[in-house]
Amino acid sequence: YADDIGDRKLTGPIRKIYRKDLNPNYVAYYEFEFEDWSITFSAGPRTGDHRLVEEGQVPRTTDMLIDHAANMNKICDKFFRLNADGTTICEDDAGEAVASTMDLKTLTTHVNITTLPQDIGESLKDFKEEWGNLAKEIRSSNEWKEMSINSSNIPPIVHQRKTIYKVLTFGESQDIPIGTSDVSKVEIKAHLQIKSSHSKKTLATLCLLIGNICSERGEVNVSSILRKKNNLDNLNYIKMDVTNDYESLKRQIKTRNIDFYIKLIVAGKFVVIRRYTIILSHKRNKRSSWSGFKEYSIPYEYLMPDYDQHECCGGCQSGCSPVAWAQIFAYYDRVAHTYGYRYSTSHWRGKYGNSGYASYKAPGYLNWQAKRYVESLRVPLGTYCRGEIGSTPVKNYVNVEEWFRQRQGSGRVISLSLSNIKQQVSNYVKQNYPVLNSIWYYSSDGSKVGHGVVVTKVKERKRQYKRCRTVGLWMNIRTKCGWNTEYDYEWYRRMGWGGSQNKWYPASAKGAYVAVV
What we know:
CATH architecture of the largest domain: Alpha-Beta Complex
Shape: globular
InterPro entries: Papain-like_cys_pep_sf, Streptopain_sf
Helix content: 10-25%
């Protein structure tokens, strides 16, 4: 993620975030603040989570929790990420929850601190199931699998029955992070599928390919190549540059690719294995195997309003689904009024939006007129009070189609298939449509409920891997390898909480809906 961080300077303390379902002393995440940007990373594969879990404009999540706690004369001592979609709490030095990014009963930012400790306790079992589902998804992908970490007293397995290699091509550069600890030894070894008589020559060629950072025996002089990232609290790293000089090396190369691993012994405590393969095809030397993120946005994204839930209609919250659709239709209206783009100016009719002249323009924030508009959308959606929650049956999410058609003059509301849903959401954003994204949460009473948010921007990137597995028995053991490409998606979610916690998150969806003309 060096491209995401760039040269931004670290402007705040690096904060540790823990998990309730893991060892209480295990740091699961690290939260960084770079000038006006905040990024949260997983500490390692043990989390069963993505490498990058959250990023967005400041204030960062922990600062918000510190402020919320301070408003009640409390002090945050330890932070916990409760679920995969980012609900985070802080506890004081007595282990009492004193702030949360979301109320676990109403799924809003209006947190009831009095019942928060009880709500957390009642939800932990369901959150554990949610973490398990995410870990299963991560295990089915190649994320984290090109590396492994072992204690120094446990010999690492460098040749596994199933082995994943990160693919490199000519001209690529890799910054291999080591941490702030001392690295006592680094070795680079080739996984050779050729005659042993060629092994020394192949290893020498490999060292030439990766910038002469190792000797012919694969040994690395750490002190000569170790660098520090000053903007990352003096993080140690090794820079590995795959040469661009294909022509001068092609006569020495007798294979289509070279598999190798880098073995790092860190502080005498950990052994880190990172696996790579270099594609030695000249035809592919202009194609990066791991692309950077490409970002796409709906047009005039700044015109998307940030509404919030409010108490109404029998003493419960107005509901996230009416708020999400209200934001989308108000965006259509605001774009039409401002730029005459694509949509009708009739999505907001009259002072309250639901009837009258089309000359009125939808507001960009939740005022009393927008509240009436949200409440009007509860009717076609069939939103009702279930305790304190404004609940909308999932099957009703598309019931705003007639509402939409009456104001747009044509069009339809589509429920996206769960098959390949991440790519579908990204495709609609590329076609300039915001998408209602349904996320599942568990409420504190143990029931499964959803939260509707609006996706307005997406990021995509590809990652290419080589997968090798050992097949056969006894004398017939052989290695079979293949290539595959995975795609990462991040979505910028407007959370429907008045602008609070609008950020980039790894793509996840239990449902998605779009109103198209």
